[in-house]
Amino acid sequence: MINENLILETINMIKLYNLDIRTVTMAISLRDCMDSDVDVVCENIYKKITHYAKNLVEYANEFENEYSIPIVNKRISVTPISLVGEACKNPDYVKIAKTLDKAAKDVGVNFIGGFSALVEKGCTKGDKLLIESIPEALAQTERLCSSINVASSKAGINMDAVLKMAETIKKSAELTKDKDGLGAAKLVVFCNSPGDNPFMAGAFCGIGEPECALNVGVSGPGVVRAAIASLPKDASLSELADKIKQTAYKITTTGELAGRKLAKKLGIPFGVIDLSLAPTPAEGDSVAGIFQAMGLEHAGAHGTTACLAMLNDAVKKGGIMASSHVGGLSGAFIPVSEDAGMIEAASKGYLTFDKLEAMTSVCSVGLDMIAIPGDTPVDTIAGIIADEMAIGMINKKTTAVRIIPVVGKNIGEEVIFGGLLGKASIMSVNNLSSTGFVRRKGRIPAPIHSLNN
């Protein structure tokens, strides 16, 4: 039977509270594109991507029109390119990057992810060459995103890779200084990176993934905030959690519908639903706004980490009941530049760097889209990455660092990235030196609980 109230509720979620499908991401394996000749590799990559993704944007738009559910981003993720280019006699990863970017542009997607390497235990020749090429590759492309996994709960933390990535972040920002370091905004360093994540900049098609699949990232911070606000002011925390679970179930059901319908039309398998609450700079579409609805004066107040832990858990519990295939990051995003409430909290000094780090212990994303002074030393950035990797490694969870050292700007100044990337105030970092620690070579050993075979 048709339930009129449920229909009206869904319409209100979309029209009033910014409910949307944040992304549909087609994962494409490029393992069969390898060759000793880089020109052949590039030709193979372009043909395969344009073959599988030629109808992705068109069919996604048709779904939007048919069901009146917005799909904000259409994206592609591919096999970590360090693996694909490694077979070349003379690897040219920048050339491959440009090929990926051209393919993404020609099929009309917003971003393509997978300019990636997995180096938690060490680097091969291909890994090293790819990492060296990242700054130039990001500076010469528009849609390309890059990610490097430098740590895991099984392998520990590759501190050589951590230091190298700190240098890479600095150089990426410097080569795009005319765009406030935009290159660094498309580069993320991971611990325990999942191979089915549909969100950028960390998406790639993992080794265990099929030839092609469609992964969906749902959203809806505004819907969750409105649901909490509808409760009485004296509602208990258990009632709050139940309301979030019920709302997450409805949001995930919408994503499941979109993913399965679109995958069937494209003739590829449906992959996973990522349950992450992904905010935007739009008013009312903020994770920070959920904290205020819960009772905090603002994000950053004491109790923020507890609110985030409860939110994350309730979203997962509600969402998991709506889909049998949940994956990706599945948590609450706290990007400082992409969330209107977080932007305000950072600009007013309510959110400090240390508070953000504490919050990452209970969310699935990490230190995300944080602008820092351009003169921040490489060793300090390496220390920041190492701390975040340690949180992920010890807690057996995904954590990440996407940080932008903005050349020529200092604490309190504002940078504007535009679109979903939003804007941010330059945040201060600890001035104490990390050099003596981060420049020791080798790996931080994996924790004792990694021996769980």
Arithmetic mean of pLDDT: 89
Overall helicity: 40-55%
* Overall CATH architecture of the domain at 20-191: Alpha-Beta Barrel
CATH class of the domain at 20-191: Alpha Beta
- Kindly report how far apart the N and C termini lie: 50 Å
CATH topology of the domain at 20-191: Anaerobic Ribonucleotide-triphosphate Reductase Large Chain
| Global geometry | globular
Main sheet properties: 11 strands, mixed
- Give me the number of helical elements: 16
What structural class results from the helix and strand content? Answer: alpha/beta
Strand content: 15-25%
Question: Which regions contain 5 or more consecutive residues with pLDDT less than 50?
Answer: none
What Rg, in angstroms, do the CA atoms define? Answer: 21 Å
Query: Total strand count, please?
Result: 13
Secondary-structure element series: HEHHEHHEHEEHHEEHHEHHHHEHEEEHE
Description of the molecule:
The chain is of the alpha/beta class and 453 residues long. The protein has a domain of 172 residues: Alpha-Beta Barrel (Anaerobic Ribonucleotide-triphosphate Reductase Large Chain), CATH 3.20.70. The chain has 16 helices and 13 strands. The strands form 2 sheets. Strands 1, 2, 3, 4, 5, 6, 7, 8, 9, 10 and 13 form an 11-stranded mixed beta sheet that branches. Helix 2 packs parallel to helix 5, helix 6 runs parallel beside helix 7 and helix 9 packs antiparallel against helix 10. The longest helix has 30 residues. The model has no long low-confidence stretch (mean pLDDT 89).
